């Protein structure tokens, strides 16, 4: 009996000790905030908004491909196998297996989800600046979706909700028209809720929302809707052309009066090839720079995105813009033959060397260039310039209400800055003049491929372009697979 | 039964009584320590007449006669027989038997006699560690234990080694759970190997007592403690050595190089680059410039002793090792100090404690990557001198953006890590009511890890990615703090019923928590300073590396376990374990899990039919089966946290915002491993030959993988990432054999050998990720990742083009499937899918980094005062990818290219050289080599001074030795070192210019007094 008693006592004690720890011990909260308990202050909204802006920086690749896919530039690079995804797009032989197209898909959806994260919680609290915050968020969602719809056509659309793990198995591709409709709604909302000017440079304004809305209308040939909204921007009094074309793209003239919307970059943080979308710098600038360059004014890069002889020759010899938009490296080397105590300018010829570089977006000397100097260039991307708005306005009037007089006024305002004479044409001749001006004024800025496609000129201008196929890029094959192999591929791929 | 024994005893007594009898007194002592052995059994052979020794090791046995044989046995010692020759007192000394079946092994929350163990457990003793003199404990396991594979991730001082037990069972973190005196340890570099008493490796389902952490196997390390009732002993060891590289890769000299550069240009229609080939001579051998002989030295002292109720051991050690690349720039030094004290309180309570302090300083260079020092040494042009006429390092102009002067690189590398770690473990156990024992122990670690690096302004040549512009020098500092504790409490009941049913029940709980905090800052432009004395405070711009959060962690485990062990007559052994684990790694619905395992053994040699066998001294058959877990995944994968990167520029200033981090998957649960083992242990020829044989099958399901995930979820935004999901299955099947033989030929000559072999087959059964495969590793620049995990093939297999010789002429090209850019002299890729065109789809299995079989062999003998040993290990059937060549028009090449194709019939292996577009550098089997090797890991000759000489100086033992490590490696592999690998499950076995494990010559002494 005594034995049993002691044994019982022992087991009692032991089990008390053993079970003294409650299961709650393994319920731990991270010190990092949970995303579902956020948006409790205005600051939370503002911080999440910065996260939504972040992905704008990754659109450098969209800009590069907008040129390379067109007849303006060649892929370049080190060799025929240097970034095959870019080389294939240049040659119009791209397939659904393409790392760069996948990057664009992934990164733009990164932006979509971050904007939707804010909008998902838009009703949680109220605060004085809420309309401004939501206006910026809807603009950003529209910007990212516009990039997606331009590249891929029908894309899964999510409105005011994130796509969460598991959703990839159920969500379908939304017809492009519906995506465009949502973009329009977002931009109208943004234009109605954003101020003409913001206290901080770099933030989206009413003018930016209207200009992008005008552009979105143009892409759908809704000229009658485009004209008034673009007129609004032009007559707002906020924007004007920079008098001296040579200064527009220099780093000391960022966010100038001509910038309706400008994507902001900085060189204060390092970056690596492992996460190009993480760079706070303009990655395209390093890619575009002359290879192993050693000389004044500019810095070295990877010699991608090299302008063709054809686009160089498309400029009138007297057009001041030609040598400011396109760097003729041989002429430049001749001009600075005394550089480095007479050693002169040195560089290496890359693949598809044409002797030309995209001067608007190549590295400038004097950058901080922290970390990898090719990935952290601070050159802001002038996403929507007032010149672009004027030319879009011209196109809208020329093709919409037929107000060619106003169209010519807008067009000639752009030409006045150059030494070129006014255009007097009207009708379809004016249309061609506007198209031509768009190409020259905006060369190197990533618009040309999409302009050619939307105006139906791509097949005639781009070697290798197959009508009915290459208007859109293929949905990356792996993305179709990862979404459960339910989506159809774009035609022809 | 009982009646029979009594009958026998009486019978024997009668028989013995008939002889001329007397009483004999004597003492039984431990031969090594000369300590009395308490409780040793002294038995007259063939009788039941026996006694046990008292506290002083003394015994007195009655009724013996001359020519009787006394059998003396004691747990953990080799039994000894002695013929009685007179009535004088005798002293019988026993030698400790490390391999004895009576040896007690730690099996997790308890101990078990080796004889009764039903699992696959391997042991490394302190002797092996002393023989090998590793700088890290893992090295002592290399080639020593069947089923355990150790691969160095680098030969640089202080580098880690990868440990895999019975193959790669997961694509994630496949490291085993390592416990040092019950204390979780992740980085073994902080431990002084000579503090280790033993290393036990639990390889099968017996590890199930560790539940959710056991799937990769468990390694239990026990440190030394003093002995009760012993005099103070000093044990001093020291060695000094020189390390050298095991190999230099033959590359072209300046003349050969210039010839090939010119040929490559001519082949592409370009003008030759060098017009002075004949006058270039040998040029610079960059490998000679970067490799050096580097010293290593170590000293440690242990003081131990004990009283009746207390024992104490104190040790201190210091190791310093320079690198064979970089010398002092790759120095590793370690100071450790350890104190352990055990005390018996009252009769039933024992208290154990140990404290360990380690301080480490490690400097390191860029290694095993594109742009590492060795990569640069291999690729830099031999036509460049090290320095130019002005005395500055030469620029590597024309060699692409990545290759730079390796000596300039070393000079500009200032990179230092400092670790301060304090570990403690305390335990108390209380025995009561005869059969009960309760034990409680707490183990805790605290570590501070400080990192410092400074990258000064440097110009290595035009466009180099490593150039640092003026005022852009970078300084970075980090201070990370890690804390963890484990608190175990368990109770044990042990009883034997009717001398036949032995029952052992353990119930326990374990609580584990690990927390940490990272801080780190990067500064740019430290004005006016160069060198090591820079301070981040002075930097112009300072950024917090953790501005997005994510700098703390808190992971916990709450476990309950029960183990029942039962044996019937010491013949039939059963053991069952159930463990319940709760882990913070998993969400509310999957937090807790149950892990059952069971094992059984049959000691066949105890059966009547084998009792008289002359063949077997011992034979045990055992088997085990269980479900084990793996929870080594990132914390909080089940919930969505705001630790992503959201940064943008307003007003020309970088503003940090908030963003969602890695995508969450609320459904994640642990990996489950179903593990089966069947094996046997046997002893032959008077216990001289030990054999163990095991077959195992481990199938891991619900693999925790982080596959590519649909981009629409936003997982590719900065600071985000794919979610972890349970998808996939891997199977490892293998055979293990261990043999050991020891023989004492005479007092003067003893020898032993041991051998182990492991055959392993790894197969991925299922991958649910993107397009049914996962990728890893890298090859060249911008090429598809070469390693894959895919159903039906070994994990991490290499996938690329299969070559089929070299195109000899245009006709062969025309006859072959369409291959872009192909010209005579180019590699011919096989059209494996037969569609007439060479595309990405033709890439196929080219080998895998997993060895088909590994072997270890140890030989040793002692003759009088001389001892000798040799350790060999070998790996067969693993492939390595050669990936340290940059292939720029002006970079140097391996001498393989001296036998290149230069015209029809010249070579069918090595392609032509050209600067033009070619597919020859695409990943193909041209870059995959057989990584099999045999390595003479250690040879050692020692001399122990004779006792007579030493007694005058009160020295117990003085031994001098010379030893050489990695003296010879036989391999066909053309790279530095076939033994190395990053150990990544997908992406291991790719050689980016591996820092070779050095060849080391040591001279040392061991002194005991």
Question: TL;DR of this structure?
Answer:
The complex is a heterodimer of chains A (493) and B (1009). Chain A has 493 residues and is mainly alpha-helical. Chain A is 44% helix and 5% strand.
Gross morphology of chain B: globular
Order of helices and strands of chain A: HHHEHHHHHHEHEHHEHEEHHHHHH
User: Can you identify the CATH superfamily of the domain at 104-227 in chain B?
Assistant: TonB-dependent receptor, plug domain
| Computed Rg of chain A | 27 Å
Individual helix count of chain A: 19
User: Which oligomerization state do the chains in this entry correspond to?
Assistant: heterodimer
CATH fold description of the domain at 104-227 in chain B? Ferric Hydroxamate Uptake Protein, Chain A, domain 1
Task: Please outline the major beta sheet of chain B.
Answer: 22 strands, antiparallel, barrel
**How much strand content do the residues of chain B show?**
over 45%
Q: Report the CATH architecture of the domain at 104-227 in chain B.
A: Beta Complex
- Contiguous runs where pLDDT drops below 50 for at least 5 residues of chain A: none
Count of helical segments of chain B?
10
Number of separate strands of chain A: 6
The secondary structure category of chain A is: mainly alpha
Q: What's the β-strand tally of chain B?
A: 53
Mean pLDDT over the full residue set of chain B: 87
The level 1 CATH classification of the domain at 104-227 in chain B is Mainly Beta
- Proportion in β-strands of chain A: under 5%
Nearest-integer average pLDDT of chain A: 92
Class computed from helices, strands and strand pairing of chain B:
mainly beta
Task: Walk me through this protein's architecture.
The complex is a heterodimer of chains A (493) and B (1009). Chain A is mainly α. Chain A has 19 helices and 6 strands. Chain A is globular and about 80 Å long. In chain B, the strands form 11 sheets. Chain B has a 22-stranded antiparallel barrel. In chain B, strands 11-16-17-14-15 form a 5-stranded mixed beta sheet. In chain B, a hairpin with a 2-residue loop joins strand 14 and strand 15. The longest helix of chain B is centred in the N-terminal third of the chain and has 16 residues, at 2-17. The model of chain B is unreliable at 1-19 (pLDDT under 50). The radius of gyration of chain B is 32 Å and the shape is globular. Chains A and B meet through helix 1, helix 2, helix 5 and helix 19 of A and strand 24, strand 25, strand 26, strand 28 and strand 32 of B.
